[in-house]
Write a structure and sequence with these properties.
The chain has 416 residues and is α/β, with parallel strands linked by helices. Helices cover 45% and strands 6% of the residues. It has helices spanning 18-26, 46-61, 74-85, 98-109, 140-149, 186-199, 201-207, 220-224, 230-236, 241-259, 279-287, 293-305, 310-323, 328-338, 344-355, 369-376, 381-386, 395-399; strands at residues 3-7, 29-36, 68-71, 89-93, 113-117. Helix 10 (241-259) crosses helix 15 (344-355), helix 13 (310-323) crosses helix 15 (344-355) and helix 14 (328-338) runs antiparallel to helix 15. The longest helix has 19 residues, at 241-259. The chain is globular, with a radius of gyration of 23 Å. The relative contact order is 0.12. The structure holds flavin-adenine dinucleotide. Flavin-adenine dinucleotide binds at residues 208, 216-220, 223-224, 246-247, 249-250, 253, 310, 313-314, 317, 335, 339, 341-343, 346-347, 350-351, 354.
């Protein structure tokens, strides 16, 4: 082949990138392209994304290449560049959301060869099918069994040389407006993954639910933008079954979304819920002002860090849907706006799991936030860290806010 465009999206890396590796092997000229589409809401993630792109550009330049950046509609811009350069093909990593599906469909109708590659998950969505029939797994445990046995493709080395055409304008990359709580990009991701696996993986099985201990990897924003290959990470962490199982949950929700792309809008398993419309309670929840310390701590961690511990996500989500009886879509939207790792499959899949409309085999599971607080934040440390008004309170009051004679400062009494 003469010229191939590699269209990046949420696969912002050079290691183990099947589309990029294949283009570099097969084409005389390769054009790595990212199109910034400002009409797609990026929420809190914009700055992180721009850092990922700057790092990708540096990594491509270190291999004699370039990252070409354009602005506008992805398909229009990719085709404009293809016409200008006479590119014969567009290579991209396959993705599962409704938006990605539409983009993929539009590109496949254009007069250019369009090829999709794996890389977004450990096992490509749609590969594993339950023996009893159906196009995807609806329950996690059998999926985990099949996933663990499934033969994996080999991890690919980054290309040594990316032969980009010399006479093409690279395009300006905006600089992030503010510093991010976590540095974006493949280089930071690989450093963090290596260090975390070496230092903390052995303690993950026992510690990952300890809210104050913060023993999880915090690799989710990097996985979200594809700065890390999930396959490579699963191999690097192969000794830590509990951690690898979490990567399998990620694959699981991706294969559900592949089969049910409306997952962020429509109940996967409708159960006839009648949700309450309560804007005041919803606003209190969003602001971390419900008067329930463990819920407020999680919600404030989200607002300040753009990230929240998984156990806290479960607690605040269950509080919204099971106790306030507010529609999971309102919660998912708020998470999606604020999470650096906010992605459709994981976010909506987990929200539907908590709401009982998703893949939980026990949809009516009870979830008591105070019991959760006592178990996973026994000394109240996580609450004190994120709700400064409560920093001087004894743990009994943190766990039993109703007992407080008067809440300190502007901290509210429990709204329910
Ligand atoms: C209501 C709710 C909403 C969520 N929204 C998102 C989201 O938008 N994006 C997102 O990446 N995760 C989401 N999760 C899953 C999980 O909370 C985060 O992936 C995890 O907290 C990220 O932190 P970590 O990287 O330290 O995780 P670790 O414990 O170190 O796990 C490693 C990786 O495994 C994957 N993973 C872990 N737990 C889950 C899970 N339950 N479902 C799917 N993948 C998982 C993530 O990619 C994570 O980075 C949500 C969970 C809940 C309950």
């Amino acid at each position: 082949m003469d010229t191939v465009i590699v269209l990046f999206n949420r696969d912002l890396r050079v290691h183990d990138h099947p589309a990029l590796a294949s283009a570099c092997e097969r084409a005389r000229a390769v054009i790595p392209l990212f199109v910034l589409d400002e009409t797609v809401p990026a929420g809190r993630r914009r700055g992180f994304l721009l850092q990922c792109l700057a790092d990708l550009r540096a990594n491509l330049r270190a291999r004699d290449g370039e990252l070409f950046v354009r602005r506008g509609d992805v398909v229009t811009e990719a085709m404009r560049l293809a016409c200008r350069t006479g590119a014969e093909a567009i290579f991209a990593s396959a993705d599962v959301t409704l938006l990605a599906g539409r983009r993929q469909q539009r590109l496949s109708r254009e007069r250019i060869a369009y090829q999709l590659f794996p890389g977004a998950t450990v096992v490509p969505p749609g590969t594993l099918k339950p023996s009893g029939g159906g196009d995807h797994y609806r329950v996690f445990t059998p999926y985990w069994r099949a996933w663990s046995r499934h033969e994996r493709r080999s991890v690919l080395a980054p290309p040594r040389h990316v032969p980009t055409p010399p006479d093409l304008a690279a395009g300006r990359l905006p600089t992030p407006a503010r510093p991010e709580p976590m540095p974006g990009g493949e280089s930071a991701a690989r450093d963090r993954a290596r260090q975390w696996i070496h230092r903390a993986l052995p303690g993950y099985a026992d510690g990952h639910d300890d809210l104050a201990g913060d023993h999880t990897s915090r690799l989710s924003p990097y996985l979200r933008f594809g700065c890390l290959s999930p396959l490579e990470l699963a191999l690097l962490a192969a000794g830590g079954q509990d951690f690898v199982r979490q990567l399998c949950w990620r694959d699981f929700y991706h294969q559900v979304t592949h089969a049910f792309p409306a997952i962020n809008r429509t109940d996967y398993r409708p159960r006839g819920h009648r949700w309450r419309d309560d804007e005041t309670a919803l606003q209190a929840w969003r602001a971390g002002m419900t008067g329930l310390p463990i819920v407020d701590a999680g919600m404030r961690q989200l607002l300040t860090e753009g990230w929240m511990h998984n156990r806290a996500r479960l607690i605040v989500a269950a509080y919204l849907v099971k106790l306030l009886k507010i529609d999971w879509r309102a919660g998912a939207r708020h998470f999606f706006d604020h999470l650096l790792d906010g992605d459709v499959a994981n976010n909506s899949g987990n929200w539907q799991w908590v709401a009982g409309t998703g893949n939980d085999t026990r949809p009516n599971r009870a979830f008591n936030p105070l019991r959760q607080a006592k178990r996973f934040d026994p000394a109240g440390e996580y609450v004190r860290r994120h709700v400064p008004e409560l920093a001087d309170l004894p743990t009994t009051h943190i766990h039993q806010p109703w007992r407080l004679p008067a809440p300190p400062g502007d901290y509210p009494r429990p709204i329910i």
